[in-house]
Specification:
Length: 277
């Protein structure tokens, strides 16, 4: 992303009201893909999905890297079924519409993947809107999942929100915590610019751009408890968070009178009892 995005950039992500969101999770280890088209990059996949999108079909973009048995580094536009016969019927339907090359394949889901959580590579907002950004591309719109342990994952989920006055041209990046066993999801930020995540067995630290000074982007780092997602610590002008046991280390940011950015390691002790309201 263009680093000189100006002071008009602001973080709409101050902590959002903490609400639990149910998120669909694929329980079957094998699913069936009714594949209508295949593309080799996300730009073409989004364009093809947009052209095929209607309110009557349920096509999704699937990253083949999320399937153990499929050829890697491709994106397929497909309908997802849990049964072979359902996929077969879906393919027959598409072939009657003129898509003679449509076919189905089974997918052995990679355990730690977006598809295991039924999260598409890109949010539907990028498919439903025709977008021609200048300062970012669709590679920056790809959703990332970071599995923190066997029970939890952090989700970095870009989405598009049309706003002619937005210097970031509609790109927003939400951050979620997801508990895998009870299938609950909590939004931590509605928009975190250039997120950087670090975690240990108790905490998740998220660094976001929140301001600029001279030509430099400055960050704020927030730390959340993995037990319940509560915010326990926040430090402005702090980037590159790392953990050593219950101690957070980050690079403290200052800008001198000449406009030079200075970074200095800073250490912060953490405790789960210091929740911030």
């Amino acid at each position: 992303m263009n680093q000189k995005i100006g002071f008009a950039m602001w973080l709409t992500a101050a902590l959002v009201v903490i609400v639990l969101y149910p998120a669909p999770v694929v329980t079957a280890q094998t699913i069936w893909l009714s594949i209508i088209a295949t593309e080799n990059n996300i730009d073409k996949a989004v364009s093809t999905a947009r052209a095929l999108h209607t309110t009557e079909n349920a096509l999704e973009i699937v990253d083949t890297n999320d399937c153990r048995n499929l050829r890697k580094n491709l994106y397929v536009i497909a309908s997802i079924d849990t049964q072979r016969h359902s996929a077969q019927k879906t393919i027959e339907k598409w072939r009657t519409r003129g898509f003679e090359d449509a076919y189905f394949r089974h997918c052995e889901i990679v355990q730690e993947s977006r598809l295991a959580l039924r999260i598409p590579p890109v949010d539907n907002s990028f498919i439903q809107n025709i977008i021609h950004p200048i300062n970012w591309d669709l590679d920056e719109a790809i959703t990332q999942v970071k599995f923190l342990n066997t029970d939890m994952a952090a989700i970095i989920k870009p989405h598009y929100q049309s706003d002619p006055e937005d210097i970031r041209e509609g790109l927003k990046i939400s951050i979620y915590l997801q508990w895998l066993k009870n299938n609950q999801r909590m939004q931590l930020f509605s928009d975190c610019i250039d997120p950087e995540l670090s975690s240990n067995n108790q905490f998740l630290a998220v660094s976001c751009v929140t301001e600029n000074a001279a030509d430099h982007l400055l960050h704020s780092t927030s730390v959340f408890s993995l037990a319940d997602g509560s915010l326990i610590f926040r430090q402005n002008r702090c980037r590159e968070p790392e953990f050593t046991d219950n101690q957070l280390t980050c690079q403290e940011e200052t800008v001198d009178a000449d406009g030079k950015l200075l970074l200095k390691p800073a250490e912060h002790m953490l405790t789960v009892n210091n929740a911030i309201n």
